[in-house]
């Protein structure tokens, strides 16, 4: 799926350009878009989603409701209710990490920074199924993929949750809007807008393209963690010593020397922009706990053979971001300065390899990425692409 051009009206955003959408709606107001993806068909069938929910490597949850009671089970889920049974839904988290076509859907939303993207969650529900009225702290695009779903939503002051339930359910839900979404329709909701989606048909499938928003303490702790790691590697990271400390008749008293050392160490911590960026880059590209890459059986040894024409693709699970001369991939800083081609690979997620091979260090690094399954080489794609001859 292609990335929309930023200042052109687009169907995906109901005739708004991505610029206008970001200005008017992002983080501010909900937007209902009829036929955002008119000819789109879910790349995953209901059966394929059931298979994912059974897989122990996939994060899934089953929500069932009866009267006012709610039940939550965590995957793997070998037995799901039949398609026409009422009041159940299964939620498959990170579906984009398991399927290339779902991962491609993310491209349509890349007018928002990759740093904000969390994942694509897919729900499958029987009639009446849903997760109950709630609010999220995330921005989300709710794309209807199969069957119909009724959404009720609205801003409300009182966000108190019901007690004693395994799910976050609002105590008093006061929707302002009620809409019915069919395949291809989409609803954008900013954080904290209360909402409740109820399946109207069997095999009701909804894609949630979700965007994470870290809290300030989260950001600070990420930076502190790296600062501490670096401190441990320096002389200042040595263990506390107190040779010549006098004998004490007040053993319970906190020693001044210990306090002094702690105070001095804290005062010496420096949070240079490079350190903050390094911490963010590592953290934002860190693969989720459930991610396992598939190293290929055979790889082209880029160190000895430069495949031209050829196209390098990032794996759907890889995260690669850059800032200035720094870049990070899958939780690690990239060695050397981020070059123009590396930035292009990060933005496009694919790169037509130039005719002239880069230096040995870069070739070795790319080889490591191929070996780890972080990137893949396509030798057929480029052959049919005229740009490849550059
Ligand atoms: C769903 O797809 O049923 C839940 C999505 C949400 O409300 O965030
Ligand atoms: Co929600």
Bound molecules: succinic acid, cobalt (II) ion
Question: What share of residues is helical?
Answer: 10-25%
The 3D shape can be described as globular
Element-by-element helix/strand order: HEHEEEHEEEEEEEHHHEEEEHEHE
Instruction: Tell me about the largest β-sheet.
Output: 8 strands, antiparallel
Which stretches are low in confidence, meaning pLDDT under 50 for 5 or more residues running? Answer: 386-390
What percentage of the residues does DSSP assign to strands (E)? 15-25%
Distance between the termini: 25 Å
Number of strands: 17
Count of alpha/pi helices = 8
Query: Could you report the average pLDDT, rounded to the nearest whole number?
Result: 93
Strand order of the largest sheet: 1-9-6-11-5-4-2-3
- Based on secondary structure, the structural category is alpha+beta
Question: Radius of gyration, rounded?
Answer: 25 Å
Describe the structure.
With 390 residues, the protein is of the alpha+beta class. Helix content is 22%, strand content 23%. It contains 8 helices and 17 strands. The strands form 4 sheets. Strands 1-9-6-11-5-4-2-3 form an 8-stranded antiparallel sheet, with helices on one face. It has a 3-stranded antiparallel sheet with strand order 8-7-10, with no helix packed on it. Strands 16-12-17 form a 3-stranded antiparallel sheet. Strand 2 and strand 3 (69-74) form a beta hairpin. Helix 4 packs across helix 6 (273-285). The longest helix is centred in the middle third of the chain and has 17 residues, at 216-232. The chain is globular. The two termini are 25 Å apart. 29% of the residues are buried. Residues 386-390 have low confidence and may be disordered. Cobalt (II) ion (CO) binds at residues 134, 136, 195.
